[in-house]
Design a protein that fits this description.
- The protein has 287 residues and is an alpha/beta fold.
- It has one domain (16-286): Ribokinase (UDP-N-acetylmuramoyl-L-alanine:D-glutamate ligase), CATH 3.40.1190.
- Helix content is 37%, strand content 20%.
- The strands form two sheets. It has a six-stranded mixed beta sheet with strand order 3-2-1-4-5-6, sandwiched between helices. A three-stranded antiparallel beta sheet has the order 7-8-9.
- Helix 3 (95-108) packs parallel to helix 4 (133-140).
- The longest helix is centred in the C-terminal third of the chain and has 17 residues, at 241-257.
């Protein structure tokens, strides 16, 4: 890949990654977090907005799903012009939107599809209608190269109770495999008593532990969006699935570790997507 220059912040032939998700007016999650994460990890981000949320670090006060025909026209606009290598799917709000997204993925067949089955915000607000979960499972998940549920989402997808231990996480593996995605990253971030944040990368034949030191902070808004976007970005850049997941895990861990350097809002603040740039600027200033 050609090295970037000051006049060209992205390398020539930078892989293009599409995020299909909802807008977070607070800027910490959703489309806004996706674009930040894709940009920070070296890809060019484009977007299709599925819903507009009235949201801040304290919670979600309103959700306006984008009409189906406009979601469809956005998808056609980007796919017919841009060379999209990878797609990340986040908040889809309802069954109608899920169906149109699945249809367009089948039509345009991007090389990689990462599905983050967004159902509940960090604040606890519901972001996906319960009636839409079955549509997600039948229409979209089987198309995915990888899905990235957290523990409550994994429980919702399998109809089981939310795991409270790593043993209970492991007990979900077969049911998650049966959903039909090529791989599943079951995120263990909700096991807050654990010293490490342990995820399970579930492939057809193997399960791999992806672990990182846990950093204590309340500023974790947008972690799932950020991680899945980074995976899509690294896949688009030519990494294999396991390496893309490991690179994305390292990136989100650092973004969480530096989250308290930001002062945004009064609730669950965002992670620090551009920690590396800030560190570089500080280093330059000291020289």
């Amino acid at each position: 890949m050609t090295t970037s220059t000051d006049s060209h912040p992205f390398p020539i032939n930078t892989p293009i990654v599409l995020t299909i998700a909802g807008s977070d007016s607070g800027g910490g999650a959703g489309i806004q977090a996706d674009i930040k994460a894709m940009s920070a990890t070296g890809s060019y981000a484009c977007s299709v907005i599925t819903a507009i949320t009235s949201q801040n670090t304290l919670g979600v006060s309103a959700i306006f799903p984008i009409p189906r025909d406009h979601v469809e026209s956005q998808l056609d606009a980007v796919f017919t012009d841009l060379n999209i290598v990878a797609v990340k799917v986040g908040m889809l709000a309802d069954s109608t939107i899920i169906q149109v997204v699945a249809s367009k993925i089948k039509q345009y067949q991007p090389k990689f599809l990462v599905v983050d089955p967004v159902m509940v915000a960090t604040s606890g607000d519901l972001l996906l209608e319960h009636s839409a979960i079955s549509t997600l499972k039948t229409e979209l998940i089987p198309l995915a190269d990888i899905i990235t549920p957290n523990l409550p989402e994994g429980a919702a997808l399998t109809g089981s109770s939310t795991p409270e231990t790593e043993q209970e996480m492991s007990a979900m593996v077969d049911e998650l495999r049966a959903l039909g995605a090529k791989a599943v990253l079951l995120k263990g971030g909700h096991l807050e008593k654990n010293e490490n944040s342990n995820d399970l990368l579930i492939l057809n034949e193997t399960t791999t532990l992806i672990s990182a030191k846990r950093f204590p902070t309340k500023n974790t808004h947008g972690t799932g969006c950020t991680l899945s976007s980074a995976i899509a970005s690294y896949l688009a850049q030519g990494n294999d699935l396991i390496d893309a997941v490991k690179l994305a895990k390292t990136y989100i861990t650092q973004a969480i570790t530096h989250a308290d350097e930001l002062e945004v809002g009064n609730g669950h603040g965002p992670v620090h997507h551009f920690f590396a740039w800030n560190q570089a600027e500080k280093s330059d200033a000291q020289q």
